[in-house]
Amino acid sequence: MAMELNSSSFQTEIADYKGGAVVDFWAPWCGPCRMMTPIIDSLSAKLAGKVKIAKVNVDDSPDIAAKFNVSTIPTIIFFKDGKAVHTTIGVVPEAELENQIKANLL
Question: Which of 12, 16, 56, 65 is deepest in the core (most CB within 10 A)?
Answer without folding.
Answer: 56
